[in-house]
Structure formats: C-alpha cells, structure tokens
UniProtKB/TrEMBL annotation:
<keyword id="KW-0378">Hydrolase</keyword>
<dbReference type="Pfam" id="PF16188">
    <property type="entry name" value="Peptidase_M24_C"/>
</dbReference>
<dbReference type="Pfam" id="PF00557">
    <property type="entry name" value="Peptidase_M24"/>
</dbReference>
<feature type="domain" description="Peptidase M24">
    <location>
        <begin position="11"/>
        <end position="149"/>
    </location>
</feature>
<keyword id="KW-0645">Protease</keyword>
<dbReference type="InterPro" id="IPR050422">
    <property type="entry name" value="X-Pro_aminopeptidase_P"/>
</dbReference>
<keyword id="KW-0031">Aminopeptidase</keyword>
<dbReference type="GO" id="GO:0004177">
    <property type="term" value="F:aminopeptidase activity"/>
</dbReference>
<protein>
    <submittedName>
        <fullName>XPP2 aminopeptidase</fullName>
    </submittedName>
</protein>
<dbReference type="InterPro" id="IPR036005">
    <property type="entry name" value="Creatinase/aminopeptidase-like"/>
</dbReference>
<feature type="domain" description="Peptidase M24 C-terminal">
    <location>
        <begin position="157"/>
        <end position="220"/>
    </location>
</feature>
<dbReference type="InterPro" id="IPR000994">
    <property type="entry name" value="Pept_M24"/>
</dbReference>
<comment type="similarity">
    <text>Belongs to the peptidase M24B family.</text>
</comment>
<dbReference type="InterPro" id="IPR032416">
    <property type="entry name" value="Peptidase_M24_C"/>
</dbReference>
Length: 220
C-alpha cells in the first residue's frame, strides 16, 4: 500500500537544522487522561519578527488561561482574548482557539470548545487553548495547552482555567519587553509548578539529564 501522508519517507523527510522554527504537536492516550500539547522552538537565532510573533501568541495563550469569566459563558464569547495581542499589530490565525478533550477518549471532543456551536463552559470541562500564527511558506507557531475549567476565587460564581500541561515554553523565542508584569508573574508561577510537580518525578526515574534540562528551562 502507499505510505500514509503522515509517515516519513525519503522523498519528504528533511534534516533538522538550527536555522528554522519547529512546531511539535504531541499527545498520547493514558488511562487517566488524554494529552494534546503543542510547542514551537527555534534552536538558533530567530528573526525579530519570529520572536515578536511567538511572544504575541504566548501572550494570547496566557491572557485566555488567566481570564475570569461568568459561569455558563460560551467559549466563543471569550476566545478573542487569545487573539488580542496579535490583533494589536494586525496579525491573526485561521483556526479555532481550542477544542474539548476527552478522558482517554477523543482528542478533539465536541461539544466543548470555542466555536459558535459549542456548549457554554462549565466547571470540570477540559479544553485546549491553542492560539497560533502562520507565515505562508516560512514558519508556523502554535502554543497549545490543556486546561481545566474551574471555579474562580470570586464572590459571585465565576469561572477560570487551570492549565494542566506542564511543559516549558521556548525561552529563545520570548521577547520579555512585550510582556506585562502580570504575564511575567504567570510564567514564573507556571514554571514553579512545573518544577514542583515534574522535577521529583524525573528524579524518581533517575532521568538526570532531563532534570537538568527542566531546571534550566524553568529559570525565573
């Protein structure tokens, strides 16, 4: 049979280099949940525009992840928070901002998400948050996390998100001058949580090289 379009072949494979960006859309099925995590990296010297575009995608990811919103709000009414940092400079992305994720079920699970036909968000739902930016023929950026909808610490019954993906972002692509103090506080808090939860597990498995990488990439 012909090879799958998703399978590597001598005709389509390329050698990795430090001169371009790479988008990794990863995931797995586990008995206690399904993961769908995308990270974008650059191992060399990104251009100023690549850094700005990446940083603005990250800003949108953070802004939506931190959002406090009314109970039973539809995802479509809040998804623009993931786009605002891109819209500020006339950029956008042409796909949905996120989709429901099943528990050892479908990776893309309707009816949760941020489209117009999705149900209102409620505590206990899992959704992805995945803004991006794509420059045709040059590079693509997407930052995708899995988030749990939880009750916010407010007097009235409002909701927010708790990001459950514990993977650092690429420091090489972040322009700190674009981030607000609140966004930097969020990143530092997120990195503290990654260290606290993932670090001991890597040590338990005696993965010292991986533990060193984690410490380096979760510096404040």
């Amino acid at each position: 049979p012909p090879p799958s379009p998703c399978s590597p072949s001598n005709g389509s494979s390329r050698t990795l280099s430090a001169r371009e960006m790479y988008l990794f859309d990863t995931g797995g099925q586990y008995l206690d949940g399904t993961t769908d995590i995308t990270r974008t990296v650059h191992w060399g010297e990104p251009t100023p525009f690549q850094k700005e575009a990446y940083t603005r995608v990250l800003m949108g990811n953070i802004d939506l992840s931190c959002l406090i919103f009314p109970s039973n709000a539809a995802g479509r009414t809040v998804e623009s928070f993931a786009r605002r940092a891109l819209w500020d400079v006339g950029l956008n992305y042409g796909h949905g901002t996120g989709h429901g994720i099943g528990n050892f079920l479908s990776v893309h699970e309707w009816p949760v998400g941020f489209q117009s036909n999705n149900v209102p968000l409620g505590a206990g739902m899992f959704t992805s948050i995945e803004p991006g930016y794509y420059q045709d023929g040059e590079f693509g950026i997407r930052i995708e996390d899995v988030a749990l909808v939880v009750k916010a610490q407010t007097e009235e019954p409002f909701l927010t998100f708790e990001v459950v993906s514990l993977v650092p972002y690429d420091r090489n692509l972040i322009d700190l001058s674009l981030l607000s103090p609140q966004q930097i506080r969020y990143l530092n808090s997120y990195y503290e949580r990654i260290r606290a939860l993932v670090g001991p597990e890597l040590r338990r498995q005696r993965l010292e090289e991986e533990y060193g990488w984690l410490q380096e990439n979760t510096e404040p």
